[in-house]
Amino acid sequence: MLKKQEKKQLLDVARRAVEEYVINGRIAVLPEPVSQGVTEKRGAFVTLKKHGALRGCIGTFVAHKPLLEVVADMARAAATEDPRFSPVVPEEMAELEFEISALTPLRRIDDPAKIEVGKHGIFIRHGFHSGVLLPQVAVEYGWDRREFLDETCWKAGLSKGCWKESGTTIEVFEAEVFE
After folding, report:
1. Last residue of a domain, one of 68, 103, 138
2. CA dist., res. 13 & res. 70, Å (int)
């Protein structure tokens, strides 16, 4: 679990990374870590919202960098590289809300009944398609387990129900979510 000051530093780093890149076209210099929690190698997603509506979300499960660096990279990517949205412009900065999901490692499951809505996020792969939904998404939309699985398939560009097909891999993870 991240401490309050670590969460605050990560949120500050996310905002600063986006501001520096969007306004000045530069990569932000990272501050010294407040404590060990932000130096652990963990995957993370950064979600940007504007007036409560999704404005960008990018993340990685790969934990090859300290969390502080991963958050800065994912924040910048969420603001400028999410293919669903145009890049964030300087005039939007004051309206953006930042949410960070610090992840646990992926864990493959063979029984979808083990998925706990609100606790687990889902990563589905089938052939060249893959899709992920964070744990909080199912709660926000009021989905049950089946709907959560179906929507993750749909996000992967697959038909709903693909999670029941042979050749589909389901992995779960947990996220420490804060804003």
Report:
1. 103
2. 10
